[in-house]
Structure formats: structure tokens, C-alpha cells
Amino acid sequence: MIDPFLAFPFSSLPLLAAEGGLGLNLDPFETNIINLAIVIAGLVWFLPKVMGSILERRRGAILSDLEEVERRLQEANAALLAAQQDLAAAQTKAEQIRIEGKSRADAIRLDSEQRTVEEMARLKQSAASDLDSEASRVSEQLRREAARRAIERALAELPGQLDANAQAKLIDRSINTIGQA
Amino acid sequence: MVPLPFSLPFAALEVGQHLYWQLGGLKIHGQVFLSSWLVIGALLALVVAGTRKLERDPSGAQNLLEFLWEYLRDIAREYIGEKAYRDWLPFIGTLFLFIFVSNWGGALVPWKLIHLPSGELGAPTADINTTIALALLVSLAYFYAGLSRKGFRYFEYYVEPTPIMLPFKIVEDFTKPLSLSFRLFGNILADELVVAVLAFLVPLIVPLPVMFLGLFTSAIQALIFATLAAYYIGEAVHEEAH
Questions:
Q1: Cβ of B204 under 8 Å from any chain A Cβ?
Q2: What is the structure's pLDDT at B10?
Q3: Which of A52, B14, B135, B153 could be bridged to A48 by S-S, CB 3.0 to 4.6 A?
Q4: Are B130 and B36 in contact (CB under 8 A)?
Q5: From the CB of residue B55, how many other CB atoms can be counted at a distance below 10 Å?
Q6: CB under 8 Å to B214, separation ≥6 — which residues?
Q7: Whether complex ipTM tops 0.85
Q8: A99: buried, middle or exposed (CB in 10 Å: 19+, 13-18, 0-12)?
Q9: What is the pTM assigned to this prediction?
Q10: Is the per-residue pLDDT at B39 higher than 90?
Q11: Residue B57: pLDDT band by 50, 70, 90 thresholds?
């Protein structure tokens, strides 16, 4: 078979090479290596620009999102801390108020107890003194009444019994009594 | 080999030549497996390297992976719906990443430097077996998605909105994997062939626009495949508002 393209240096190679086994084919034209090199160089020049900017933008968006979220986390933490401090302050204040209230309640209770006791003592005392004065008044009255009656009886009986003899005896007895005393 | 009416040197492009491996009774295309393993290895290496040391400040590979994840999640969520997309995001993401890296690897890695006994290395997706496998996986996925979510009510989908749709919907089950696999395979293989043919005719500069266009279409094909897979799954799990 006459091959009209035998003049081309690369034209007959594939037929020959097909007979061989595994190996390298280093023919620059048949392997299209030059064009491939240009295409790959073009891609290496072009792709990083396009993809790089896309990926960089994506990374920037993610990083700014992260930053934003971290900032918000910090803010939330700060708010939490402030709230916790407020809570602690409120708790101590509540405790303080509670203690104060308790002590005031104690004081009031003690005071009122004391006053009650005092009042009771005063009442008792005044009752006792009332009773005493009443009793003394009553006994005074009774005494007076008894004295009055005794005098009355004495005045009633005396005129019948009284004579010189009895008078002398009485005077003697009185003198005796004085003498003995 | 593609039958050409004339015997020109670029007929030696070795289309249809494969590195056959015998596996039991099967003859498998070794070069597809080799390049698939390389693609899978590259993806795994990238993912492992990018997720090994995760930081709050996403930089480098982690940033790229997170960006890809968000992109794929948006696709899955848009087409599958809020309820079910989480179950299918790994599948859609794997499809997209494998196809994308396969396509770009096929277009960018100088595979022809490595000479195989037969056939040549290239994008795994330029082989119809790969794309059919992927498309059948999509079919299985949407059937499974529909049946597991809705039970036998899934088949109501075939008679909605009217029972007249039944034959069309049945035919669709066959055309979906067919169109998925042929679209991807055809685009990638055609791209490789156009570049190879142009490189044979005019070795320098002239193939460059086609190569760049190939990169563009490869990326679009990966996106289309993943999007359609997500759309089919979304269609299967879609709940009619009764």
C-alpha cells in the first residue's frame, strides 16, 4: 500500500508503535504535547485568577461571618457576665434586706414583748395598789365604825355602870398597867 | 477502526482499538480501567488531602472542596427538592466529580506519552461502556428513589396527569439512560477525535481553540449529566400536591 503521506515524519509512527509493548512515546507532534502544554499553561494562568478570586471571596465571607459570630459571642458573654454580676448583687442585697428585716422584726418583737411585760407589771402593780388602798380604806372605815359603835355602846352602857368605885378600880388598873409597862 | 474511504495517516488514530484484558469470559477495555483508576485515585487524593486537617479558616484544598460541595448541594437541592436531596447528594456529587475529572483529565493529561500495546489512554468517559454504566446507575437510582420513597404509589407517576401518558413514560425509562450515555460518550469522543484529527492535519496552534472549546464542553457535559440525574431522581421522588 502506497502511503502518500509518508513524507510527513510523524505519519507512519503510530502504525509502527502499535506493534510494541508498554512504553513511552516522546514524539512531540504525535502526542500533541506542545498544544497541551499551551492549553495547560493557559489554564494555569487563567484558573487561579478566576477560581482564586471566587475562593478568596468565599473565604473572606466565611471569615467575616466567623468574626461577626465571635464578636456576638463575646457580647453575649459580656452581657451574661453583667447579668450574673447583677444577679449576685441583687442576691446580696436581698440577703441584706432579709437580714435587716429579720433583725428589725426581732427588735420590734422584743420591744413589744418588753412593753407588754412592763404594761402587765404596771397593771398588776396598780391593781395591787388599788386593792391595798381599798383594803386600807375599808379597814379604816371598819375600824372607825367599830370605834364608833364601841363608843356608842360605851356611851349607852356607861351611865348605868359608872360610879366612883368602878372609876377608882379602873384608874388603879390603868396605873398598874402603866406601872407594868 | 472507523472505516474511512481513503487511507490517510490520521486513520491511524486507533479509534476502536482497545487494550483487552481477559476477565473470566469477559473482554474488558484495559485502558479505560487504567485511566478510571487514575481519575479515582486523583479524586481520592484530593479529597483526603483536602479534608485531613479541617480548619475553621478554609484555605487551599479545603476551601476548594467546600466550594465544590456547596455547588453540588445547590444542584441537588434545586432539582431533587428540599426533602430528599440529602440522600442523593453523594451520588450526584460523585457523578459530577468523576465525569468532570475524567473529561478534563482526558483533555489535559498528555496520555499519549504513555504508549500501550494496543489502544490508547484517554478520558474514561470517551468509552461507551463507562457512560452506559453511569447512565444505568442513574436509572437504578431514580427507580430506587421513587420506590423507596413512595412504594408502589411510584407507578402513579406513569399515569399522571393522564393515562394517555403511560406509553410515553414507559419509553422514557429506556430513552433516559440511552440519551444520558450517548450524549456524554459522543461529546467526549467527538472532542478527542476532533482534536486528534486537527492535530494530525495542522500540528500547532490550530487545535488550540478546539481544545479550549473541548474543555468548556467537557465541563458542561459533566454538569448536564449530574443535573439530569438529579432531575430524574427529583421527578421520581416528587410528591404531587393532592
A1: yes
A2: 45
A3: A52
A4: yes
A5: 9
A6: B107, B191, B192, B194, B195
A7: no
A8: exposed
A9: 0.71
A10: yes
A11: confident
Give A-chain residues touching B17 at CB under 8 angstroms: 18
Q: What angle do CA A120, A123, A125 make, to 5 degrees?
A: 110
Q: Does residue B179 or residue B60 have the better pLDDT?
A: B179
Flag whether residue B6 sits within 8 Å of chain A, measured between CB atoms. no
Instruction: Cell numbers for B226, please give them.
Output: 449530574
**Nearest-CA residue of chain B relative to A41?**
B108
Percent of chain A with pLDDT over 90: 40
User: Mutation test of the interface with chain A: which of B63, B195, B206, B216, choosing the one with the most A Cβ atoms within 10 A?
Assistant: B63
- Min distance A36 CA to chain B CA atoms (Å): 6
DSSP-derived 3-state class of residue A54: helix
The residue in chain B having the minimum alpha-carbon distance to the alpha carbon of residue A2 is B7
Q: Which residue of A has its CA nearest to B113?
A: A25
Per-residue pLDDT, A8: 40
Please give, rounded to a whole number of angstroms, the shortest distance from the CA of A87 to a CA of chain B: 35
- Please state whether the peptide bond connecting residue B161 to the residue before it is cis, i.e. omega within 30 degrees of 0: yes
